[in-house]
Design a protein that fits this description.
Blueprint: H1 9-37, H2 41-51, E1 57-59, H3 60-67, H4 71-83, E2 87-92, E3 95-103, H5 105-125, H6 132-149
Antiparallel strand pairs: 1-3, 2-3
C-alpha cells in the first residue's frame, strides 16, 4: 500500500481556510437572503432555475437532477413551495409518474424581488473583497474542480 500523500502546511492552510470560508459565507448569505426576502437558499435555487427557462417550467425529475437533490427531498420541498403559492405542479400527459414544476406569478415576483439583495449580499461577502484577477482565478478554480466532479 502506498504511503499517504499528506497535505503540506500550505495545502492544509488552503484546505481548512476554504472549508471555514465556505461554511461561514454560506451561513451569512443564507441569513441575508432569508432576512431580505423570506426565501431559503433552496427556495431561491428552485425559483432561479425555473425563472431562467421559457415559460418558467421544467420537469421535476430534471430539476432534481440539476439541483442534485433526491426525489424525496425535491418532492417535499416543492410541496412546501406549492403551499406557499411560489410554484405549481402539473401532470405530464401520458406519464402518470411525471410532473412539471412551474413558476407561479407569486414565485416570479418573489425571485425578481429577492435577486437584487441576494446579488448585493454575494458582492458584500465575496466578490467585492477580491481583485478582478482574484475573481477570474476563483472562477478558473471552480471550473477546474467542477469539470473533475461533474463532467456532465
Amino acid at each position: 500500500m502506498p504511503e499517504p500523500r499528506w497535505l503540506t502546511e500550505e495545502e492544509m492552510r488552503a484546505w481548512l481556510g476554504y472549508r471555514r470560508m465556505r461554511n461561514l459565507m454560506d451561513l451569512q448569505i443564507n441569513r441575508d437572503l432569508a432576512a431580505d426576502s423570506g426565501l431559503s437558499e433552496q427556495d431561491y435555487d428552485v425559483l432561479s432555475h425555473l425563472s431562467e427557462l421559457p415559460g418558467g417550467r421544467m420537469r421535476a425529475n430534471e430539476l432534481g437532477a440539476r439541483l442534485r437533490w433526491s426525489r424525496s427531498r425535491l418532492s417535499h420541498h416543492l410541496t412546501r413551495m406549492e403551499q406557499r403559492g411560489l410554484i405549481a405542479r402539473h401532470e405530464v400527459p401520458g406519464d402518470a409518474r411525471g410532473a412539471v414544476a412551474a413558476l407561479t406569478d407569486a414565485g416570479e415576483a418573489a425571485i425578481r424581488s429577492a435577486a437584487p439583495a441576494h446579488a448585493a449580499s454575494v458582492r458584500e461577502h465575496l466578490i467585492d473583497l477580491l481583485t478582478p484577477q482574484e475573481v477570474r482565478t476563483l472562477g478558473d478554480i471552480a471550473e477546474k474542480v467542477l469539470d473533475r466532479l461533474d463532467p456532465g
